[in-house]
Specification:
The chain contains one helix and 26 strands. It has 294 residues and is mainly β. It has an eight-stranded mixed beta sheet with strand order 7-8-9-11-13-15-16-18, with no helix packed on it. A three-stranded parallel beta sheet has the order 10-12-14, with no helix packed on it. It has a three-stranded parallel beta sheet with strand order 17-19-21, with no helix packed on it.
Length: 294
């Protein structure tokens, strides 16, 4: 039980940063609590198996075991579950850490959801998810280390946070045209990723540091036609990437963007003759990079 008051003052917020032991299987939330956050650390942390909200609490509620804001717009925390979780219509935001370390394997999301917050599914057992058509933002480390096999990003998506899909098991990914920001290392070390496509008319102008770093089996990449910059180690150690077409709009490529240590034969950069990308490739013959004029 979380106390209703301490030294005569009502407890309105509860934030755990760390590990929970067996004594926290059930969490009782007192009458005056407004804010509840459970940031578990370490894969051995015990996810609570149930939540209960005190009668008279006008800020939080439990529906089918899941903790929500009273208006139903925020999914705050899901107790330990297996199998499928269907999020009810009306939820707008999946809060940070809501499914962290959870054993749920499939999530069905309504089209009312607009935000998936940071670490929402961090190191969970999630394999399948049906995303909202109206999703705007995927937060930092949202699916970090989850064994997610396939994901279809919706057309209204605008932002993908740093490390959002890092170390997931996706094989292909298509970035919608309205995405204007992809955080660093967003798809780093995805061991099964083979193909990356940016939708026609993509608004993305920068591929940040390490976005596709250590994606060893990445073979095919179609870059945005309005791209301006490729950051440090963006395609570092992408051993199977043999050819890539870089648009003439690119005016900055980090010196180590395509560094590959290992058995890759060579990388062919196709670019308009005398463009920045063409000159970049020409100057890196000793790094197993060659230029081909378009």
């Amino acid at each position: 039980h979380i106390p209703e008051s301490i030294n005569g003052k009502p407890v309105v917020a509860f934030w755990v940063l760390g590990d929970l032991d067996n004594n926290f299987e059930h969490i009782f939330i007192p009458k005056y609590m407004v804010d509840f956050t459970l940031e578990l650390l370490g894969s051995e942390s015990r996810v609570p198996i149930s939540y209960e909200v005190a009668e008279g609490n006008t800020n939080l509620k439990v529906v089918d075991g899941v903790l929500y804001s009273m208006d139903g717009k925020e999914l705050i925390a899901c107790p330990q579950k297996t199998g499928t979780v269907r999020i009810p219509s009306g939820v707008v935001k999946i809060n940070s850490y809501a499914f962290t370390y959870n054993n749920v394997t499939k999530v069905i999301m309504p089209d009312t959801v607009k935000i998936i917050s940071k670490k929402a599914f961090n190191e969970s057992q999630l394999q399948k998810i049906s995303l909202s058509k109206n999703l705007n933002e995927i937060g930092e480390m949202a699916f970090y280390k989850a064994p997610l096999k396939k994901v279809t990003l919706p057309s209204k998506l605008k932002k993908i946070g740093a490390y959002a899909f890092c170390e997931t098991h996706i094989k292909t990914i298509k970035i919608p045209k309205n995405v204007t920001s992809i955080g660093k290392s967003a798809f780093e070390e995805c061991p099964k990723l083979e193909k990356v496509t940016f939708a026609s008319g993509s608004k993305l102008k920068v591929i940040e540091q390490g976005v596709f770093r250590d994606c060893y089996y990445l073979e095919k990449v179609t870059l945005p036609t309005k791209l301006k910059k490729i950051g440090s180690k963006a395609f570092y150690r992408c051993m199977n990437l043999r050819t890539i077409k870089i648009p003439a709009t690119v005016t900055k490529i980090a010196d180590d963007a395509f560094v590959s240590k290992g058995k890759r034969r060579s990388l062919t950069i196709k670019a308009k003759k005398n463009s920045y990308a063409y000159r970049y490739a020409k100057n890196r013959k000793n790094r197993r990079i060659k230029a081909v004029a378009l």
